[in-house]
Design goal:
alpha+beta; Sulfite Reductase Hemoprotein, domain 1; 2 domains; 6-stranded mixed β-sheet
Length: 582
């Protein structure tokens, strides 16, 4: 996310049946789909050709030995627009190009000579030393910019190719990397931010994530997938890794006979053809987890569709096969053994963003805080490292909601930490929309974007805090607002209560301006009382970006006026008439 890429139901229904049918259809084309085990490995498009010509991982040697020394102009086209992604690098958008021209210009016309660089955290606990390295990279090489993404990455901008080797050297000193942070690869993992410390944890996923990374991240055999492959692993009952929209997810459950382990989900993804993942009904032990992950990844590699980029995600293979065949192939062709049947996850216990103060299993506390739409910056990260040390805490983890969690806080230091976080613009007791709003990179840096997102969303939050202060207590719980700069849904617009998809809209006066298409009533298990469901699209209603706060205030007040007792925003918005939602 924030990217730049064009059964057993006793406890709860599967995601695909929880109020929203899948929107992905199986492929019925008679043409070869580029499935390696069926059609052979002959490339069917240029993207497959450059991957076959040279493994994307090999570009690191050229970055360090050639491009960082000779500069931007020395970079070849397939490296610049392709293989650089294997090491977390995309060219960023050239300033001054308006959103109306995004679809009209070629990539080289849109791109600047600077890069976005993505650092994967994979649920890792970031020590004060790691935070200082991350902050220093921002200050020294990224003009002070840094964002927490909803994939638990740190994302930089303004990076020059000459600086990349030094950045890698610094990251290596604290166990961080950009390996396969982008590209047709296993992207960064989502891991529970409270792994190993939460008092109510079902199972600690940290050893599983570490084992998969040790064995397979950077493996050349997995560096040519049809497209991106996203992973989520949690053992916390809040289900805090948005598991329904990942290619593979392992969700902590308690098996009645085998004890703690994981429920296996596959085939989730959003973008322009959203599909919620499905359970295979299989129980995965901690000892089996790395094998199962490897098996699912290789199924995608060997059977995934490669002919068309817009069909090259695991969700399309799952739609073609169905869950029964997928599990059969996994067990017979890739594992060599059958997995036990297992229970579905129960209802989430609370929000998975972990904002607030919570007791750990050892009596200390973890404290979740929210920056505004993920913006942190080098100075904030460096000062956060100082604060963590000052209060005697141990580390920080990032969340899949553009938040952060401070771990192992002595109880007597909690209020000192809370006050210090507030001074850094990191609120542990935020308003409704400061807590629940996420935004993608937007037109400021992204070559695919049509509208501004970060600043637009931040301004709307400021306004909504004033406008809706009188009714915020009546809303209760959370009400999520997700702002995306293009149709690709890096900010998960189809799974938000209010999701806004950037596009050029025409006002009543006939003027074309930046604006949004509206999606209402989406949710995931970790954020909504309805379980996972895709939002309803208001196809005939567009909102100019300048009127974002006006629209949100209007629809929230309509909800309060017309809801039934105890009815959630998601439930109301799915039954309301169009006029009530405009």
């Amino acid at each position: 996310m924030n990217g730049m890429d064009r059964t057993d139901t006793a406890a709860r229904p599967s995601a695909s049946s929880a109020g929203a049918p899948a929107r992905v259809r199986p492929s019925r084309s008679s043409k070869p789909q580029g499935q390696w085990k069926i059609d052979g490995t002959t490339p069917l498009n240029h993207n497959e050709e450059f991957k076959a010509e040279d493994n994307g991982l090999n570009v690191r040697e050229r970055i360090e030995g050639v491009y960082a020394r000779e500069g931007f102009d020395a970079i070849t086209g397939d490296d610049l627009h392709g293989r650089f992604r294997w090491w977390g690098l995309y060219t960023q958008r050239k300033p001054g190009i308006d959103g109306g021209r995004t679809a009209q210009l070629e990539p080289h016309e849109l791109e600047d000579r600077y890069f976005m660089l993505r650092v994967r955290s994979d649920g890792q606990a970031l020590t004060p030393a790691a935070l200082r390295v991350l902050g220093g990279i921002s200050t020294d090489f990224a003009r002070g910019e840094a964002d927490i993404t909803d994939r638990q990455n740190i994302q930089y901008h303004w990076i020059e190719v000459e600086a990349v080797p030094e950045i890698w050297r610094r990251l290596d000193t604290v166990g961080l990397e950009t390996t396969t942070a982008c590209g047709d690869t296993p992207r960064g993992f989502l891991g529970s931010p409270v792994a190993g410390i939460a008092a109510d944890e079902i199972i600690d996923p940290t050893p599983v994530i570490q084992e998969i990374k040790r064995l397979y991240i950077g493996d050349p055999e997995l560096a040519n997938l049809p497209r991106k492959f996203k992973t989520a692993i949690t053992g916390h009952p809040s289900q805090d890794v948005v598991h329904e929209i990942n290619d593979i997810a392992l969700v902590g459950v308690e098996h009645p006979e085998l004890g703690p382990g994981y429920d296996l989900w596959v085939g989730g993804a959003l973008s322009t053809a959203p599909r919620l993942g499905e359970r295979l009904g299989a129980f995965v032990t901690a000892e089996q987890a790395a094998d199962v992950w490897y098996g699912v990844c290789r199924i995608f590699r060997d059977y995934g569709f490669r002919r068309l980029r817009n069909k090259a995600r695991l969700k399309f293979l799952l739609a073609d096969w169905g869950t029964e065949k997928f599990r059969q192939v996994l067990e017979t062709e890739y594992l060599g053994y059958a997995l036990a049947d297992g229970p579905a996850p129960g209802e989430p216990t609370r929000s998975g963003d972990h904002v607030g103060v919570f007791e750990q299993k050892d009596g200390r506390a973890y404290v979740g805080a929210t920056p505004t739409v993920g913006r942190v910056g080098g100075d904030t990260l460096t000062r956060l490292a100082d604060l963590v040390e000052q209060v005697g805490a141990d580390a920080v983890r990032l969340t899949s909601f553009q938040k952060l969690v401070v771990l192992d806080v002595p109880k007597e230091k909690v209020e000192e930490l809370v006050a210090g976080l507030d001074e850094l613009g990191l609120s542990t007791r935020p308003s409704l929309f400061r807590r629940s709003t996420i935004a993608c990179t937007g037109i400021e840096f992204c070559k695919l974007a049509i509208v501004d997102t970060k600043d637009t969303a931040a301004a709307a939050i400021d306004e909504l805090e004033d406008r809706l202060e009188d009714v915020e207590p009546e809303i209760g719980g959370s009400l999520t607002l997700h702002v995306n700069g293009c149709p690709n849904s890096c900010a998960r617009i189809q799974t938000a209560d209010i999701g806004l998809k950037g596009q050029i809209v025409t006002t009543e006066e006939g003027e074309q301006v930046p604006g949004f298409q509206v999606h209402l009533g989406g949710s995931l298990s970790s954020t909504g009382v309805e379980g996972a469901q895709l939002g309803r699209t208001l196809r005939q209603h567009k909102v100019p970006a300048s009127e974002l706060a006006d629209y949100v205030e209007r629809v929230v007040r309509q909800y309060i006026q017309h809801r039934t007792s105890g009815e959630s925003f998601a439930a109301w918005s799915h039954r309301a008439e169009d006029e009530e939602l405009r």
